Amino acid sequence: MASRPSLRIGFVPEHFSTPLHYAKKYFGLNAELIPFPSGTGHMITSLRSGEIDVGIGLTEGWVAGLGKEDVEGDGGYRIVGTYVETPLCWAISTGAKRDINSVADLKNGKIGVSRIGSGSYVMGFVLADQNNWLSPSSPNPFEVIPLQTFEKLRNGVNDSTADFFMWEHFTSKRYYDNGEIKRIGEIYTPWSSWKIVASTSIEKGDSRLEALFEKLDQGVKHFQEDQEESVKYISTELDYSEEDAREWLTTVEFTKRTKGVDLGVIKKTVDILKKAGVLNEKGMTAETMVTHHR
């Protein structure tokens, strides 16, 4: 019997990818790692087109992608695992010289996002909901400007293509430090931040998926036990200072067991995204989104 091809795993090439790097470097993860700097929304497109088999990305992006009422076919993927237990801090940024100084200045403005349906898009609605800017007569609190990449988002707020965007705090911080962009606030996800999904073409008991969970668990354990190596890797191979890498390590908690998902987390995410106007009652239920339960 011919062996099956190795998994193609999409990931965001940021500090959160360190345990995945260890899984391949030290523990023999047999997979092709494919970076997606533009984030979760791009991975959803690639999962549905058959370009990748697995994605490690943001909870809100995966849930929004499956929960829309106009999803074609079976949605292309299901949530199978957990990666990070802690919430994500989204920093809210504008151009360095823009006359925008607080979250209150953003109402009815232009939000830069990587893609429609991405975490940066979804969190705009959560931000609007938290500030009571949503109403039946005004379901779209911002003009949405898709700009694909973090670099284009930074350029967009400086040339006024967009008024603001949201991206992970530590990834943004070096650009505050060098004066390229200005920080005007932050918002935390009301859910644990990173989940693992698999294409619906992969069977639930696929040995490649089981091996991924095993190797990722080993990568997380190595990450936790050798933080000095992690600081060195993040500050030399990725786009972070040593100081920021050390500070980030104090804020993040990776799961000890990547296989499976707490259905309650997905239900909470669905409920909040409905309240924020991202999803409605006609979309896929949380129970249908998850195939591997804890």
TrEMBL record:
Family of the protein in this entry: Belongs to the bacterial solute-binding protein SsuA/TauA family.
GO CC aspect terms: periplasmic space
Domain Ca3427-like PBP stretches: 90-187
Record-given protein name: Ca3427-like PBP 2 domain-containing protein
Gene3D superfamilies on file: Periplasmic binding protein-like II
Database matches in Pfam families: PBP2_Ca3427_like
Location in the cell: Periplasm
CDD domains, alphabetized: PBP2_Ca3427_like (cd13637)
